[in-house]
Amino acid sequence: MADHPDFLDLYTSPDYDTYSAQKDWQQNTMLGRLTMFLIRIGDNALTRFLIRSFQDQQGGDSPQARVLSIFAHVLVLVMAIFVAYAIGHIVQIVIGKEIVINQEIIIEEEVKLSDLKKALESKNATEMKQRRGAREKKDKNT
User: Fold this and answer.
1) Can you give the C-alpha Rg of the chain in angstroms?
2) How far is residue 52 CA from its own chain's centroid?
3) Which residues 6+ apart lie within 8 Å of 132 measured at CB?
4) Backbone dihedral angles phi then psi of residue 60, each to the nearest 5 degrees
5) How far is residue 137's CA from residue 85's CA, in Å, rounded to a whole number?
6) How sure is the predictor about 79, in pLDDT bands with cuts at 50, 70 and 90?
7) pLDDT of amino acid 1
8) Do the Cβ atoms of 33 and 26 come closer than 8 Å?
9) How far is residue 127 from each of residues 23, 116, 121, 133, 139, measured CA to CA in Å?
10) Residue 81's pLDDT is what?
């Protein structure tokens, strides 16, 4: 690898500082490591084989190409639904699970003392009738 002229030119060119900064970024950051991982996956022989097998050989008229196209559309739709659900869940976490509205209703009513006495007397009279009715039923049963 050291005998390759392009490789040697990389270390002698003025872009060596840029290259070393990029290598530091790739080795020291999470995004750089993710980038290197994706490059390794894309450079894999199996990945290249799969890409060649999925390439359309008949100009889009083959059944495999149609099925693959439908699958891609469904996958995009499912991913969009998933992203909307995830965003909704994040918003729900930020806002809270329930929105509670507490309201107090205060009704002010003027009641005359005479009306209050009448209502109290009619209530007492009703209670007395109920008591008499219960006593009469008890007396009838014995």
Assistant:
1) 42
2) 36
3) none
4) 90, 5
5) 67
6) very high
7) 43
8) yes
9) 94, 17, 10, 10, 18
10) 96
